[in-house]
Amino acid sequence: MSNLLTRRLALLADRQHHALLGGLRGIERETLRVDPQAHLAATAHPVALGSALTHPQITTDYAEALLEFITPAEADIATTIDKLDGIHRYAYSKLGGELLWSQSMPCLLPGEPDITIAWYGKSNLGMLKHVYRRGLALRYGKAMQCIAGIHYNYSLDERLWRVLAEHEEGAGQRSAMAYQSERYLATIRNFRRHSWLLMYLFGASPVLSSCFLRGRQHNLERLSDDTLYLPYATSLRMSDLGYQNDAQSGLSPHENCLDSYVAALTKAVNQPYEPYAKLGTKQDGEWVQLSTNVLQIENEYYATIRPKRVIRTGERPIQALCSRGVQYIEVRCMDVDPFEPVGISVPTGRFLDAFLLFCALEESAPIDEAEGARHTDNFARTVKEGRRPGLTLHDGAREVGLRQLGEELLARIAPVAALLDAARGDAVHAEAMTAQAAKLADPGLTPSARVLAELRGNGGSFTAFGLRQSERHAAHFRARPPTAAEAGYFDGLAAASLAEQDEMERAPHIDFDDYVAAYRASNLCHNSGDCD
């Protein structure tokens, strides 16, 4: 443990923990709607769930059948997951015979033309979202866009940043917003250094349906007639078989300072990419993508973690970061846990809280290109070979066994978990740490190993396993339907969202071509700050 981390922990312990108990946690869970035979649902987004465009908690991601559940932000992850459970229970009260797919990797998918892109209505904003997804289909293929994950949104109490700033030399010369943004960027750098551990501990996608690859070249092994896998993989979702694209391969916005991060994304949304230029933005008079640039919009950048700021009406993410700084971080690399009905457990959330607070408080020097390449390689090794006996990772100038490196990292995180428990007056974070240490000692306890064990014991079919788990989860939720008060609350949200979409569509609006032009012109961020 570094001297800086020791000092910061002592400082926070001396402040009676008030700042530690603040901050917010939110979860976005993606899940495909499937029919009882594990085929992608061909039905439209259920009207009973409300408008996918305007509903604050139930929307769609890429495909019409890819639901996204968004929890309110809460101070305690247990409350967040309870809210996520409530969304699932309500959704099942409206889904009829359909199921929510229990896996990150997709169910049985139809041909590309038959995967319906999410529809958001005829307003300019709704069409913008739809055309953006048309562009994703051109650039990445529809199958890849049907992959699901868990996004973990995390913020620290702003009082915590003020406590640290008061005792850090030179911090008083910067604004509170600048200091907070710097600390979140430092958190992200440490996340880059250590996120391979999350892939080992929580990766749950070592297999996929053979129909997913659509003829792409691969080095996977065959587990059964319909299933491909890698024997030691933890998360094929996060490998080059999941989210990947040649245009983005050269895009690596470093997080050494906010200005450089914003500048890199601003360049990407304004820099033409020749293969996309050949496709054009329109075909036969119909919009097929928002632009021919490396990124249509900044959210197209496939990062494992992002700095975020809640945006205002008509504002773009880059503009929000420029004008008001970083407000929270979004962790995007977590697989859906197929053994948990809502896709994530409370103990997993407790560990993530300790892990992320460690990343926030530990020293975090800038990352140069060579170090960044090492972190990328560690991550890639872990997602494809994480449970391989004797696997080593880069630790600066040396190669170290994954288990040893993981145990050393857990030992560094342990005092942070202890401080969180002291603030709460219990031991829930320490218990979560113990559960993760057990996985390092026995790889068979990891979700990826458990998935493979289940498949090998039941015929080896990914589809059959996914359907079994989906049915179990459906029974879990259907046995606990929403109360009258809960149903009334969500019915109200659904009705309000439909009314809001209707109002948007009936309101006067400019031509869609002009709307897209105005949107694209709004992405420039004018910031005179420099990286130190």
Automatic annotation (TrEMBL):
Top class in the EC scheme: ligase
Manganese in keyword set: no
Cellular component, GO, one term: cytosol
Reactions catalysed, as given in the entry: L-cysteine + L-glutamate + ATP = gamma-L-glutamyl-L-cysteine + ADP + phosphate + H(+)
Entry keyword annotation includes Ligase: yes
GO biological process: glutathione biosynthetic process
Pathway listed: Sulfur metabolism; glutathione biosynthesis; glutathione from L-cysteine and L-glutamate: step 1/2
SUPFAM superfamilies: Glutamine synthetase/guanido kinase
Domain Glutamate--cysteine ligase: 11-380
Gene3D superfamilies: 3.30.590.20
Pfam name, any one: Glu_cys_ligase
EC number: 6.3.2.2
Alphabetically ordered keywords of this record: ATP-binding, Glutathione biosynthesis, Ligase, Nucleotide-binding
Family stated for the protein in its record: Belongs to the glutamate--cysteine ligase type 1 family. Type 1 subfamily.
Protein name according to UniProt: Glutamate--cysteine ligase
